[in-house]
Here is the input.
Amino acid sequence: MSTSMTAPSPAAPTTPPRVLSAALSEHVGARIRIAGWLHRRRLLKSVAFAIVRDRSGLAQVVVSEEVARARLEELNEETVVEVTGTVVANPAAPGGVELVEPVITVLGEAEAPPFDLYRPSLRATLPTLLDRAPVSLRHPRRKAAFELASAATMGFRETVAAMDFTEIFTPKIVASATESGANVFAIDYFGRPGYLAQSPQFYKQTMVGVFERVFEVGPVFRAEPHDTVRHLAEYTSLDVEFGFIESYRDVAEVLREVVAGMVSAVAERAAAAVALLEPVVPQVPSRFPELHFAEALELISRETGEDLSGVNDLSPAHERWVGEWARREHGSDFAVVVGYPMSKRPFYTAEDPGRPGYSDSFDLLFRGTEMVTGGRRLHRYADYLAAIAAQGGSPEPYAGYLEAFKHGMPPHGGFAIGLERFVAQLTGVANIREVTLFPRDLHRIAP
Amino acid sequence: MSTSMTAPSPAAPTTPPRVLSAALSEHVGARIRIAGWLHRRRLLKSVAFAIVRDRSGLAQVVVSEEVARARLEELNEETVVEVTGTVVANPAAPGGVELVEPVITVLGEAEAPPFDLYRPSLRATLPTLLDRAPVSLRHPRRKAAFELASAATMGFRETVAAMDFTEIFTPKIVASATESGANVFAIDYFGRPGYLAQSPQFYKQTMVGVFERVFEVGPVFRAEPHDTVRHLAEYTSLDVEFGFIESYRDVAEVLREVVAGMVSAVAERAAAAVALLEPVVPQVPSRFPELHFAEALELISRETGEDLSGVNDLSPAHERWVGEWARREHGSDFAVVVGYPMSKRPFYTAEDPGRPGYSDSFDLLFRGTEMVTGGRRLHRYADYLAAIAAQGGSPEPYAGYLEAFKHGMPPHGGFAIGLERFVAQLTGVANIREVTLFPRDLHRIAP
Here is the structure.
């Protein structure tokens, strides 16, 4: 207990301090220590190389001495090692430096990995990569997607915190299905029925009554019965809700700030991941180009000749059309479609006062695919009772939610961003599972 | 669609911009607009006052004109209003300013609240406050605890992000109970059995193999069969895990940095809540005072005369004793107890190599109550197989977890902070439910 934190450990009294591989070039000439995973061994005739991977990148270790080489030959890739060596400049080495005269110590043994992590891309099917996630995620390209996600989430929170939003944590176990009875997971709650929250929608609205402006980052659960490349049974939702708005426009404007914050956080905080994956980082315009739902249908119909009368939603092909329109007319990766018909929106959606039948809400499309849904909500108790009755429902299961509206709520609105979907669209992967650490779907609950 | 964001709304063409109540004193002499909840009406003989609450605090509105007064008398507390008025200095008013010549517009009607939100503290039992959470949380003192929590969480994340930790989102639906079969919620996962994660423990360890340093803020689920003032069935866990450590000391040092970051974020970001609740914000020492478990028992036994031979855990009374020891001997609100017996720690816990039978792990006590558990974990595959076998278990349910250790893991460790417990101890509330937005327990699943 009297040993101070900075004292060397008794087991290795002369161990030099650990240096990250990305910082090696600052230590040319010095005897230092690196630590990480044996990413690759290259056993040439005259010399051997050990490539060590740590959280900052790769370092090359030159092994020329015979005993050390024999030892290296015995180690499997992914063995965790500590290497003490001297840093020398070598323009041919990655990063312009390498480690010579190494002493290699094993910190964690490894069996041979199921696939080569050192190849530019992994040679295995997606199901295999997901089954072996603890290993496959170590591949620099797989890992990089999550560094983007982490940076984007930080950018999200910093942006809303700067706008005076309060972070909330709302319950994921709820007494009744949130928005509809469908697609909800049932749980055994101390012998009584419970459900997993499909979204924090009701709670975040209620909390506008307390904090005015709230946000939440948390899991949401959808018992999606379909197996598609875009749907997950559990994903991360970035939720925002705030009061004292006039229309969906105020919501779309906050969303624009948030998306800009996420995109710049990716560029600034995840520069290495951006350099590796080369996603096309979008320009966020000073205002999102907008199309009204009815206008979008009219333009599509005029261009394609499709009869779209009576259509009350956009198909994926229509969304792609809008994406192309935004690119062509406004040079933008983003487009907002406003005024989806009320019949396609959940009961808490407010109507456009100037255009009955159409909602005061929107979808944000990113590169022709829906990424965010947002809008203004009802805020009067009587309007909720009417909307629930119009759906043939009873107010009883909504009692806790309606309590907020009974006791004074301002006009308010908000949106939810699916984090995995944002990263999938940013990186252009074919399947959202590629950018989800441990995806959950109709068929998968492990690892 | 051509209307710009900054254009005035058609309904109120001459509305001045909204000012928050806390900023009113910057607008003396100006005609401005405030918006918020009618917190209190004071109807005196000669004059009436409307106190309006917004997210920044309270504003006083002077109503002397007869028609306006009659209108105010009709409104219930908690009605959402917009008030346009002229700001005048008045040393007797809260904040030194008030609004005169008001025009009051109702934005959201309200029924009379079930309790008076304007009183210094709420006059209702805790069950009633929880049943009516959407209203009771509006009370400035209740609300303030969550502003502390939001600030502390931001401080947590900023501190770990600055130390190069990556944020992860691990699944909450899992295929097998995490640490034990007890206290786990079962779910119907597409017709197959699933469970809610009791902690992200296995996943965060696995992710050390990918990112080296990870953190997660998310819900954890415990089917706690006991109804106590300290336990919840769902709470927010602030999790940290990182590699390339030597002992629990490295973990305790990161924890110290994190707690310091949380405490200063509370002081800086939640100053108004701190001013209202007056929690005793602790000093975080440059190093936490430490006692070994065995030494703690010896000191307690010597002082109290209790026979503690064979005891393998600390009782709440023992924890309080250690808390008093830390205060008395080190002037600290914090104390670390290290080396809890292996028999009381989960199977993944590493042993102290210098003291067999005792773990390389610790608890952090804050004011005499356990707040954090942390330590070094096993990192070798063979050690996991042995530890699981020693418990009479089979490695099969742990296959996805063990995959990481089979393929090379560094010595690592981490900790988990219960957010609600931290705030409860900081604010000194009697029951953790007071600082949980929508608590879940043996009896409560709504609202």
Notes: The two ends of chain A are 39 Å apart (CA to CA). Chain A has two domains: 21-108, 135-435. Confidence is low (pLDDT under 50) at residues 1-12 of chain A.
